[in-house]
Amino acid sequence: MRVFDFFRHADINQGVNEYRIVPGALLLDVRTAGEYNRGHIPGSVNFPLRLIYQAEKLTGKDTLLFVYCQSGARSRQAAAALSKMGFHRVKNIGGISNYTGKVEA
């Protein structure tokens, strides 16, 4: 890892584009239900961070998961937790605050 890689943020727009072309992938919004209901990326599934330990009820551990939140902090926590739980294909794509595509309520 280069010194400035730590400061580089995930590109949610690139992540959403990648999600859309990967068959069977899931786009997880780990914000609260209220935040999700105020606006979310089409096709995403709301799975709040506080419930992340129940992720095995949602999908198998080999599913490619694209995880986002508001700013990237909760999605970083969720991605770390999912990896510790044995999910092998997890990508933190950052925060919806940087998303430039269509949002639905």
Query: How would you state the average pLDDT, rounded?
Result: 92
Total strands: 4
Tell me the helix content: 25-40%
Proportion in β-strands? 15-25%
Q: What count of helical segments does DSSP give?
A: 3
What oligomeric state is this? single chain
The largest pleated sheet is described as: 4 strands, parallel
C-alpha end-to-end distance: 38 Å
Note the overall shape.
globular
Give me the secondary-structure category. Answer: alpha/beta
Main sheet: strand order: 2-1-3-4
Cα radius of gyration in angstroms: 13 Å
What string, H for helix and E for strand, traces the elements in order?
HEHEEHE
Low-pLDDT residue intervals, each spanning 5 or more residues: 1-7
Key attributes of the depicted protein:
3 helices, alpha/beta, 105 residues, globular
SSE inventory with pairings:
Layout: H1 12-21, E1 26-29, H2 33-38, E2 45-46, E3 65-69, H3 73-84, E4 90-95
Parallel strand pairs: 1-2, 1-3, 3-4
